[in-house]
Amino acid sequence: MTYIHRSEKKNIKCIKTTSNVEQKPAYNSFGHLDGSVIEYLPMEGSSYIVYDYTTYFATDMGNAANAGVKVKLQIGDSSSSYSDIVTNNTNYTTQHGATYHETGHIRRHFLNKCLRLKYTIPISDWPRDSNNALKIQTLLIRIGSYGANLSILHGTQTDNLARDDNAIVHYDPFVLVYSLWEKYDTLKYKYIWYKI
Asked: In the prediction, which pLDDT does 24 show?
């Protein structure tokens, strides 16, 4: 049985980006992830801001033991001032990919999957101005690759990614951001939970 904390979504904003070409993240360095930028102002009184980004991800591991992409969510006043949300970006940095081990044989492994990057930001981590008012901020994802592999975003295929770019099926990424309110039962003095 699963219990979910009851909350209320408000101030919902969604952007979908048309993708006509796959994105190949740089190896061991971070770059801007296409379609991940969104400007947002949380509503006063909210408890959390949820950032929810969806695209498609494929990797050709080749002979590598592990391969994939590194992801981090950042925030800033402008395109030139993006920075980590908290120190070391704890809870806002992730890795997605595959690990494959085989001895005595040639490795060849392909990974294709829907990639959903969802982060919940406490309102206490959101920047405020000198008057303690919530500020409009731009959120984006930076992404890089790891392992001796070729990875792509916004597309999928089952063939060798380096051999046939024409086989790639493109996917339009989208980002959804909203504010969350926690519902509180003032009669019972506790948070309300409900089961699904």
From this structure: 82
